[in-house]
Amino acid sequence: MRIAIIGAGAAGCFAAANISSQPGLEVTVFEKTGKVLQKVKVSGGGRCNVTHACFDVPELLTKYPRGKSLLKKTLYQFSPRDTINWFESRGVKLKAEDDGRMFPVTDSSQTIIDAIWQQMMKNSVKILYHRSVDGIERNTQDLTIHFSDNSSYTADKILIATGGFPKLEQYKWIGDLGHSIHAPVPSLFTFNMPGNPITELMGVSVPGATVKIAGTKIVEHGPLLITHWGMSGPVILRCSAWAARELHEKNYDFNILVNWLGDLKEDELREQIQELRRQQGKQLIQHKNPFELPRRLWEFQLQQCSIKNDTRWGDLPAMQQNKLIEKLLRDPYHVKGKTTFKEEFVTCGGISISEVNAQTMESKLVPGLYFAGEILEVDGITGGYNFQHAWSSGWIAAKNMVA
Questions:
Q1: What is the model's pTM?
Q2: Beta strands 2-6 and 26-31: pairing type?
Q3: How far apart, in whole angstroms, are the C-alpha atoms of residue 263 and residue 209?
Q4: What is residue 311's DSSP assignment?
Q5: Do 370 and 357 contact (CB within 8 A), yes or no?
Q6: What is the pLDDT of residues 200-210, one digit of tens each?
Q7: In angstroms, what CA-CA distances link 390 with 66, 210, 264, 379, 386?
Q8: Cβ atoms < 10 Å from Cβ of 351
Q9: Which of 110, 170, 179, 264 is least surrounded by Cβ atoms within 10 Å, i.e. has the fewest?
Q10: Is the dihedral of CA 380, 382, 388, 390 positive or negative?
Q11: What was the pLDDT predicted at 343?
Q12: What are the distances in angstroms from CA 203 to CA 189, 198, 199?
């Protein structure tokens, strides 16, 4: 029996790592580049955000903008707990950070790569590099992959785990098999704010900001990072995931509102400021920052409100107080453009999940053809959720291809 896996990313390699070596079984992974597990290597700043410490599947499903109907079947079969156990049984201990993201205790993605790779080698998996697929031919009993170098490979089962493609035409060879493709658009990206003075604060981060995309119901809370091109950080990436299609339709030209104080309400803030006036009225506003904002950001906001350096809390005019409250709770920014990082590119779109059996990951249209990972119309917000989908779908495909 011959199994071909197209794509040496997280889903493809994890599937190969879960197909035990046995007589008469040949597993070959075909990779169009010269490297394996590249997204694993660069994810999480080189630490690899393996999964998320969320062990309630209904709650876990709320972290995926698209793909819930498939995930509610796959995540019960191979959950974050199973991911933790899989790696720990191979000597790789994971740790959960305060926000629930899970990393290897080594803080090195190479630890994850090595664990998967060693299991693949133990399973006698073959890897063939620089093999770009032109098409797949359906035969009576099997399937033949045709490569761009005019070579071919005939297999009993094929797993497509290429990751998401940025352009619709790159899916043509899968569409030729009869599968429906949802046009891909970027899902995780940062917000560009060309010319905005906030970019002068690049490197400043706020641990708990709330961001709302104006004109939508999308609101997210979490760490925000100011960059030299605009805003990034988990809260921005989550917003981009939920609004992926809407923002694409707007050509990435839209407005956001930032609450720098997280979920603090206006009446609570007014009360705090009145207390400051009474108790610390002689303190300079510039020196007395009661909201634990980074100093550079606090001074920037005071400048934006035309509050002078020598103004004391007790002397703050009502007009400037109201302006400061607006800047802290509903700070508007115009976004024009996005930045995606090629290595960590995540797409919204892909193979229609209605055409895939969620219990087995096998195509409902082409017997012997399987899918796993981001090639499917499934994507999660940042935080380890996309990798969890890769592990779950890869594991399920592996189990069913040899069943």
A1: 0.91
A2: parallel
A3: 8
A4: -
A5: no
A6: 999 999 999 99
A7: 14, 29, 37, 10, 6
A8: 23
A9: 170
A10: positive
A11: 58
A12: 17, 11, 9
